[in-house]
Specification:
Shape: globular
Strand content: 35-45%
Distance between the termini: 18 Å
Strand order of the largest sheet: 3-6-7-8-9-10
Number of strands: 12
Order of helices and strands: EEHEEEEEEEEEHHE
Radius of gyration: 17 Å
Structural class: alpha+beta
Number of domains: 1
Helix content: 10-25%
Length: 180
């Protein structure tokens, strides 16, 4: 495979590049998705160890919700596993003093994990935003496809708040940058 060749998903009936996958998902509307609440049957097991590395207990968690894309059921998403429960935004950035956490979005094609994206819940979890690679002085650029993906997830699984208003208040801006 050439070094700069696009990653291609080879499952299902026809090849699908990861870029095209994200264009399909990010360009979709909330009503094109079927929501499946817990149980999602995709558990994460985390061993809890004592100071001598002995197993104390197993912590079991699962995503909050799963989504199936109605026009093509080979495409599905899982959202809501907490990655970092108390994420610290850089000092001086908007919402730095508020409770924030990172959550995982798993993207599947034909049941196989093809991409995992970390998203950010801010302002006491009132909005789901894309997590920048680097918090630059405002405005911090976010690639268009990542913006579209985060906006869709906010509309599907987030609270009924204005995504675009939060995006702007957070000091983020849409940029024409390649992603993923």
């Amino acid at each position: 495979m050439a070094e700069n060749a696009p990653f291609v998903l080879s499952l299902g009936d026809s090849p699908l590049s990861l870029v095209r996958y994200m264009e399909i998902v990010g360009g979709s509307a909330p009503e094109e998705w079927t929501m499946i609440h817990r149980p999602t049957l995709r558990h994460r097991f985390t061993p809890m160890l004592d100071d001598k590395d002995r197993l104390v207990r197993q912590q079991i968690d699962e995503p909050l919700v799963a989504f199936s894309y109605k026009p093509d059921i080979e495409i599905s998403l899982l959202f809501g596993l907490i990655e970092e429960a108390a994420y610290n935004l850089p000092a001086g950035t908007p919402f730095a003093e508020e409770n924030a956490r990172t959550v995982l979005l798993d993207c599947f094609h034909c049941g196989q994990l093809v991409h995992r994206q970390t998203l950010l819940k801010i302002d006491r979890q009132r909005c789901v935003l894309p997590l920048p690679d680097d918090w630059l002085p405002a405005p911090t650029p976010i690639p268009r496809r990542l913006y579209d993906l985060a906006r869709l997830i906010h509309r599907l699984a987030g609270p009924f708040t204005d995504f675009d208003a939060y995006f702007q208040r957070a000091g983020l801006t849409v940029a024409d940058k390649p992603w993923p």
